Amino acid sequence: MRYRDRSSSKSCHSLTIFDPFFSNGYCIASTTLLMFFLGCFLTTQQVSASIHEYPSESFIRRSNSYFLHGGSEGLYASKPEVARVDTDAGEDRPLNGKSFIRFESVTFQRSKESAQNKNEMQQKTGLVEAIIVEVKDREKIGGSYLNSDAICCTPELAKDGSCKVGEVIIHHDPDNLNEPKRIQTFFEGQSEEAKMPTEVIEINKTGMYYLYFMFCDPELKGLIISGRTVWRNPEGYLPGKMAPLMTFSGVMSFAYLVLGLFWFLRFVRYWKDVIQLHYHITAVIGLGMCEMALWYFEYANFNATGGRPMGITLWAVTFSAVKKTVSRLLLLVVSMGYGVVRPTLGGITAKVVLLGLTYFVFSEALGLVEHLGNMNDFSGKARLFLVLPVSLLDACFIVWIFSSLFQTLEKLQIKKSMAKFALYRKFTNSLAVSVLLSIAWIGYELYFNAADPLSELWRRAWLIPAFWILLAYILLVVICVLWAPSHNPTRYAYSEETGEDLEEEGISLTSSEVMVAGDLATIVERKERKVSSAVEPHVFGLGEDPEEDKRE
Question: Which of 42, 87, 192, 450 has its Cα between 20 and 30 A from that of 145?
Answer without folding.
Answer: 450
